[in-house]
Amino acid sequence: MAAGRVRERARGAFVGWWIVAAAAGIQVLQTVLLMQGYGAYAAVLRDEFGWSKTALSGAASLQRVESGLLGPPQGWMLDRFGARTIMRIGIVILASGFFFFSQINSLLMFYLAFLTMAVGASLSGFMSVTTVVVQWFERRRATAMAFMQTGMSIGGILVPLVAWSLVELGWRTTAIISGVIVLVVGLPLVQMMRNEPEAYGLLPDGERPAERIDDDVVAAPVVERVNFTPRQALRTRAFWFIGFGHALAVLVVSAIMVHLVVYLKEDQGFSVTGAAVIVSIMTAVTMVGQIVGGFLGDRFEKRKIAMFAMFGHSAGLYALAFGSGLFWVLVFAVVHGTAWGMRGPLMQAIRADYFGRKSFGVIMGFSSLIIMFGNVSGPLVAGITADATGSYRIGFTVMATLAGLGSIFFAFATKPTLPSLATSSEQVTATPAD
After folding, report:
1. What residues have CB less than 8 Å from 373, skipping those under 6 apart?
2. Given CA atoms 25, 152, 180, 114 in this order, what sign does their dihedral have?
3. CA–CA separation, 86 vs 123, rounded Å?
4. Least confident residue range of 110-114, 160-164, 218-222
5. Which of 79, 119, 209, 262 would suit a FRET pair with 7, their CA atoms being 20 to 30 Å apart?
């Protein structure tokens, strides 16, 4: 789309919101078909091949390792080549991974197929769309991130469709259908991705550069934007504390995404479809939490909201570990879902607020190396302890405790000061959008 066409559309509805909608659509695809859908696949594969919970956890952890290690080079590629190019490649790789997955007959082939899907999901998924969205918003960044991440929640709500397909059509057919959907739906959504708004004569949040009317210049506020270099960001306490707190949060999230369906099926007596309904309830609550979190995040201090959300992760997992029956499962779904939803949109918004937009991709890429430890260890801790003890209780308890302690990191992750404002800030004159 030419810059003129983008500007014309922006006069009606700010093009940044169209980008948010497309990004949310991509999140729907990846969540329902892979991220949340994997738990349903895990239950079916365990029945067919007899693989242990640790083996199934290993595949999910492999995906997290890949995502973490790919983070820094992916961040550089996003800043260098633009998100749309990288995401196109990722969509093709993700679809190819699903086709490969439909043909597996051994654990090694399963791992190779899952690694292929993981690479495709990383290149076309959360990190890429987040890098785009934060470029288009500043004042309403948390709200934009919240609406983008509702795509994850919508995907979670749709998981029962994957569970139905696994039961009625078989997992191999479901994988082939998933690959086709990724190509047919994913590629058009990727085409809507655009880099920074300045390339289209716009500014974040729909503001426009000051215009000259006759001999007068329209009065405009001056917006100071501070941008850390990756090296400067890595030298701050905030970078590491946000990373550690985020890692402990996804420790819980990643374990639940992999093991919840298996836990509900084997320990609580749910069917695969019934367990998928619980996933849908949890993610519906998450979606409400995301909208609330985005609204609050643009009005109050983000790190404090994240700090309280960590207690929600902890309380929800304690309920799942020690409660029994539908009531306590629903308590977990509501409490954990609310915490996840409110905290999620703030993780990248707070990084962009603290370190700026200019090198966001690279800074986020380095952050992924820290987050990776939570993503990897969550499924493994849950799987290994469940195989060793015959129960998820010990693993869930350990992770619940760590999530509660993680609130400390957000409490001390105060906004850093740029070492040299003279070389790293820019003055932008803008007029508020109509």
Report:
1. 68, 247
2. positive
3. 6
4. 218-222
5. 79
